[in-house]
Amino acid sequence: MASNTIKIRVQLKDDLAQVKALIKHPMETGLRKDKKTGQVIPAHFIQEIACEHNGKPVLNGMWGGAISTNPYLSFEFRGAKKGDKVKLSWVDNNGNTDAIETQVS
Amino acid sequence: MNDKRRIFLRGTLAGGSLAVALSAGLVAPRQVLAAWPKDAFGAKTVGDAAKGILGTDLSEPSGDIEIKAPDIAENGAVVPVTISTGIAGVKSIALVVEGNGTPLAANFALGANTAANVSTRIKMGKTSNVIALVKTADKVYSARKEVKVTIGGCGG
């Protein structure tokens, strides 16, 4: 599964799989103003992020606008083997969505 | 005669695709909004945010939660934060920024095999405490760390 917005790497260290992901997203809070026009820039941020290991959920995040532009996320989980599938997906407040699937290395 | 048929066909085709687009476009966000706790993320105080996301604003301070964040963040738009804890049976970790207009930044629900160790980057409007709320099956534990912000990251 190809993705234009997510970069992900899952590395096995001892019995922990380390997930590191970088997502391309503006993460607008809806509070900022355009300096030139004075217009409020509408909110546009990722609300939900989900990670699955071999189809089973390992992490489910709810985000607000306070997560930085181009969000970074990293976490660890147990019970993974080399070659296992890890899927990461996000949904933003406009209903846009993207997903990527990678393998534990 | 033929022309009219073409127009009629085009009309129904456009209508059909519009309906498909509408149903695809409308169903997905509605599911999202149902799951995403709007009240908690819109809350103006730490207590309301905690109530919205965890159901309670009571928490027990714990020395077993580590918040890794810079003491001084030069750029409030990108403040790296890592929350880890040795507490057993963690169900979720919420990240709250006391000084932000809407304090709740994120809530992570962890699977049974997921380590209680999550890193991300957040925006901070001004110098304030970063609060971690760690929820187990029956209790909420908390820890805080002050981060000094020299340039705020929440406005123009």
Description:
The complex is a heterodimer of chains A (105) and B (156). Chain A has 105 residues and is mainly β. Chain A has no helices and 7 strands. Chain A is 0% helix and 51% strand. In chain A, the strands form 2 sheets. Chain A has a 4-stranded antiparallel β-sheet, with no helix packed on it. In chain A, strands 1-2-5 form a 3-stranded antiparallel β-sheet, with no helix packed on it. In chain A, 35% of the residues are buried. The model of chain A has no long low-confidence stretch (mean pLDDT 92). Chain B has 156 residues and is an alpha+beta fold. In chain B, strands 1, 3, 5, 6, 8 and 9 form a 6-stranded mixed β-sheet that branches. Chain B has a 3-stranded antiparallel β-sheet with strand order 2-4-7, with no helix packed on it. Chain B is globular. About 15% of the residues of chain B have low confidence. Chains A and B meet through strand 3, strand 4 and strand 5 of A and helix 1, strand 6 and strand 7 of B.
Biggest sheet overview of chain B = 6 strands, mixed
The total of beta strands of chain A comes to 7
Give the distance, in angstroms, between the N- and C-terminal Cα atoms of chain B.
60 Å
Helix content of chain A: under 10%
Provide the β-strand percentage band of chain B. 35-45%
The greatest interface between two protein chains, and residues involved on each side, is:
A-B, 38 and 40 residues
Q: Give start-end ranges of low-pLDDT stretches of chain A.
A: none
Please state the CA-atom Rg of chain A, rounded to the nearest Å: 16 Å
How far apart are the termini of chain A? 17 Å
Write a compact overview of the structure shown.
The complex is a heterodimer of chains A (105) and B (156). Chain A has 105 residues and is mainly beta.
Structural key phrases:
heterodimer; A: 105 residues; mainly beta; four-stranded antiparallel β-sheet; 0% helix; elongated; B: 156 residues; alpha+beta; six-stranded mixed β-sheet; three-stranded antiparallel β-sheet; 3 helices; globular
